[in-house]
């Protein structure tokens, strides 16, 4: 029997903010997010995605210290879910946000 969850794209909860959401690649180049509420590295499912924002020109490409150029600016938002604890959340990946430096200074 197929279960379909209602996709609700809202701002991510505290559980995925302030460095609490981690992930890694495995044997291949696929990236996996780990549940921020479960012990161990329980892999979250990606249930849906949307293009949250898209720009023809990425404003960071014009920064003086940026050597590379992106094809365009974008933000993708993912609906994530943990089959182990039923935690549901959203997370964004973007090339329009902070683009350099040390992660510890951007928390």
Protein architecture, described:
- There is one protein chain.
- The chain is an all-beta fold.
- The chain has one domain.
- The chain is 0% helix and 33% strand.
- The protein has no helices and five strands.
- The protein has strands at 22-25, 31-34, 45-55, 73-81, 88-94.
- The strands form two sheets. The chain has a three-stranded antiparallel β-sheet, with no helix packed on it.
- The model has no long low-confidence stretch (mean pLDDT 87).
Main sheet specs: 3 strands, antiparallel
Q: Please give the radius of gyration in angstroms.
A: 16 Å
Q: Structural class from helices and strands?
A: mainly beta
Report the average pLDDT across residues.
87
In short, what is this structure?
The chain has about 110 residues and is an all-beta fold. It has strands at about 20-25, 30-35, 45-55, 75-80, 90-95. The strands form two sheets. The chain has a three-stranded antiparallel beta sheet with strand order 3-4-5, with no helix packed on it. The chain has a two-stranded antiparallel sheet with strand order 1-2.
Provide key terms for this protein:
mainly beta, globular, two-stranded antiparallel sheet, 107 residues
Strand-helix topology:
Blueprint: E1 22-25, E2 31-34, E3 45-55, E4 73-81, E5 88-94
Antiparallel strand pairs: 1-2, 3-4, 4-5
């Amino acid at each position: 029997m197929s279960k379909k969850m209602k996709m609700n794209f809202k701002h991510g909860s505290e559980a995925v903010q302030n460095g609490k959401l981690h992930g890694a690649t495995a044997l291949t180049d696929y990236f996996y997010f780990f549940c921020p509420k479960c012990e161990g590295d329980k892999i979250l499912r990606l249930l849906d995605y949307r293009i949250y924002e898209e720009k023809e020109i990425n404003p960071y490409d014009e920064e003086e210290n940026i050597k590379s150029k992106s094809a365009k600016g974008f933000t993708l938002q993912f609906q994530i879910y943990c089959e182990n604890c039923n935690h549901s959340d959203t997370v964004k990946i973007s090339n329009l946000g902070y683009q350099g430096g040390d992660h510890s200074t951007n928390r």
